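Weekly puzzle thread! Below is a chain. First person to post its structure in token form gets bragging rights.
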Amino acid sequence: MWGLLGFISGALALGLLPQLPNGGVLLLLLLLGGGLLRYKPGGVPVSSLGYFTAWLLIGIALVGWRAHSLLERQLPEGLDGQAFALQGWVRGLPQFDGRAWRFTVEAEQLIGPDGPLTGLGQLQLSFYLKPKQKLQFQPGQLIKAQLRLRRPRGFANPGGFDYQAFLLSRGIGARGYIQQLHSLETQQPPSWRWRLGQAVDSKPLLMGRFIRGLLLGDRSGLGPDDWALLGQTGTGHLLAISGLHIGLVAGLGFYLGLLLGHILQLWLGLGVAA
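Winning reply:
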């Protein structure tokens, strides 16, 4: 327990620092933490305080390395606002607001003004439809396009929502919009989340947008009136966490049912053999 508390405290303490420690400092903290765990003078076990301190240092080191890894996957500052040629795969659940599509892309090839760019996280892109243009994005499509990218950024208001950290936590290294779409081909089967969402949309359900939110965590169909109603009734948290809970329970039920099915099949087989 002391080790877990120490690791969590280290992760939280890192967020209070004005800047991330460099790699050398993080390596030193990791070695010090590991040394404290192994140091047993006279064969005496490590004390609770020793465990806490060791895992505090290890937590700072490991979370710090993870933070550096995420920051290194951002679009370089010198390429902020530049044009790129993209070939990549549409991922996640593309959302349409009546005017533009918004989706994430896993870049297979990204060429900028200085040549190919590698090691970048996923891209969050927008595509604005032209008048009378019919187009649908879905997971598994191979997209080729000309686009303009910017680094993840957010407001620095104290106590406000950190949009940059939100994007980085989801592995998004750049945001942008498509200037010219060259091709869009479906080459991989859509994800199960997309297929389930399409199945919900195909049914004449009065509360289909709420069902999508609960099942898939997709709240794009909810309007201001819906959110106002959820706020007034104190049920907004249901859409925030219940979708995940439903998925966990469904997965647990599936595997329990599978296990019971195998047991029943074995029992019936033994009964027939007898």
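Puzzle host: Confirmed. Bonus trivia for everyone else. The chain has a mean pLDDT of 82.
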